[in-house]
Design a protein that fits this description.
Number of strands: 2
Radius of gyration: 18 Å
Shape: elongated
Mean pLDDT: 93
Distance between the termini: 61 Å
Number of helices: 7
Amino acid sequence: MLFLIFITFIILQRAAELAVARSNEKWMKERGALEFGQRHYPWIVAVHSSFFVCYLLEVFIFEKNLSPFWPILLILFFLTQAGRVWALFSLGKYWNTKIIVLPGAEVVRRGPYRFIKHPNYAIVAAEFLVIPLIFQAYLTAAVFTLLNIIVLSVRIPAEEKALKELTEYEEAFLRLRPDLNEDIKKV
């Protein structure tokens, strides 16, 4: 019962995020935003969707229970959720599950984006470990961590390429790292 409450919460959260993403996509495209990465996006959807299916199956078929470390893992889960919300709110209308870029838009450098270029991807990577480990679904954690690495190896370069082409992405992140600016001036 506890597992069903937990997984239902996560699935409902993801459904709400998809509704926000659709709204943001419409808002951005009405302002001239362009979409990139359409070829790999179905793979991302497949990985994220099958994660939940495999997680459910592993827990039920193998009768998995709460991990003995569940209090620590639950704290880590709540930290990932706080980070997820922080990243999404920091991007505001620019957040999406797709690569949608508004030409000339100001690059977001607030929230966790002050510290890391892709905080949401780091959070998802952590979730693919933490969420299954709470109920000892080790196979799900391992397989989907690897699948996530594969899809992100395509996704991140595609996103960065689109941002570099249509915004001042590189310059924005150089301004975040004054030490890099000094190194560049020396070259």
